[in-house]
Amino acid sequence: MGCNDKHSNSKNVGCVCDVVKFIDELQSACDDLTCTSSCLNPMLGMPSSGMRANTRVFSLYTEDGTLFEAEFLTTNCTRDSSEFFRVESVDDCCAVLRVLTLQDGSLGMCRFEKTDQCIIVDLNRFLAIACIEDTFIPGV
């Protein structure tokens, strides 16, 4: 699944869409084999917590190259933003993404947590995707 497989223009329209669709299929399968972190790994890797990964965390970059962020409300009703996402579903190139937060964990390790905020995005509007980490997120 290369970015240039189906697209002849220089913007690679659909590339981000193809990768997010792949991540959605991968998360649905939740294979328990260990693999290093990469957007196109054929299975979810084992996070350092030792629990089986159920999420491939990623960030998106807009057409002008800036990091895409989404706002969400915290538990104490203040506004915050995050650039980390989990794909919940994809239909064509329209995706529902759950906003994730990065929390300080024990022993100097970071961990991701889900928020109640989901956004709907047109994946054709993004230039790049960066996969951050395969992890286990409770309740997703």
TrEMBL record:
InterPro entries: Spore_coat_protein_Z/Y
Domain of life: Bacteria
Keyword list, A-Z: Capsid protein, Virion
Protein name: CotY/CotZ family spore coat protein
